[in-house]
Amino acid sequence: MKILSRPKTPVGFIVIISVVLAALFALFYISRAGAADETATRDGRLVTFHDRGAQRVIVTKSDTVQAAAREAGISFDKNDIVEPGLDEKLVATDYTVNIYRARPVIVTDGMVRQKIMTAGQTPEKIASDAGITLHDEDKTSVQPVRDVVEEGAGVELLIARATSFTLVLYGEKTTVYTQKKTVGEMLSEKKITIAEDDTVSVKKSDPLTEGMIVEIWRNGKQTITEEQDIAFETEKIQDADREIGFKEVKTPGVKGKKSVSYEVEMKNGKEVARKEIQSVVTTQPKKQVEIVGVKMKSFGGSCNDWMTAAGITDLANASYLIGKESGCNPYSVNKSSGACGVGQALPCSKTGCEMGDGACQTAWMNSYVLGRYGSWASAANHHRQKGWY
After folding, report:
1. 91 and 67 share a domain?
2. Which of 109, 353, 373, 376 is the Cys-Cys partner for 314 at CB 3.0 to 4.6 Å?
3. pTM greater than the 0.85 cutoff
4. Residue 283 and residue 213 in one domain
5. Number of C-alpha atoms within 13 angstroms, CB side, residue 178?
6. Radius of gyration of the chain from its Cα atoms, rounded to whole angstroms
7. How many domains does the chain have?
8. Which tens digits make up the pLDDT trace of 200-227?
């Protein structure tokens, strides 16, 4: 009799396989549970408040910073500063809110001292809250209060005013400010060049005093002086949570001023030549800060959906032409020409469609193709021959 024997599987091998499978199942369920927990946790917006060195985090469905703060049990004084502002709409998933609490600040402006409550963090903001106007040439410093016993804890803003004087530059009278001590130093600071045929009413070595009048005249040729605006710069801060087209001015810009003097040649009572001889900035421009959205707005639908909605039946030639022009990208913009959208319209504005609205752009392109070529086949053949339509 022939006896058949089956190879035995080692017990240790079975144990190892069982442990590995158990670990894999455990990892699977843990990851599922973690994902579920995260989904539950993120069922709202994560808002982190920073307030006097403390941090408070909440998950909320509130639609404004003020509502979220109320939910977190945070109250404010009328002088507190909150960034972003209390009326800021919550559109993103995560926010960090900084709270600057008002505190007592002593403002010393020459012989005038006053105590105010302000959350301002910069000398300009503190001075503004105190009702004080600063000039570009004024110097400021913020330091701890010198006499804590007398005035209490806090900080002090010291303002060192610039000297104010009157500058008469070729007949144009302007009030000017400077920290310089002499007339010569002031002329160098203001980049005023004294030509050989110019006359200065005072010596360059004379000390510059409050209310002083400094006159500069040109002998011989006629001169005129004009006050001109200086354009302000614009800083754009991109917000990925706002859609394209959104714009909000966070800090309005302010135009500067400059006094420009020209040497003018007159003939028969008419100006025949003009040459700039001096330019003095009297007020520096203040840059404008804007928040602009960069999030692409979704209008939905596919390229085939847009063609069908536009009533296009020749899908083969339409797909060819659209693919060549834009790849059916409703946000496509030609960097050299400015043509844009699905049909690369030029100018972009003639479609009357929003950027990203593929259905509208495709309908416009269909109207254009049929109006100019009579059919999509003719337009596609023209493109194959010329490289454009």
Report:
1. yes
2. 376
3. no
4. yes
5. 28
6. 36
7. 4
8. 989 999 999 999 999 888 766 777 888 9
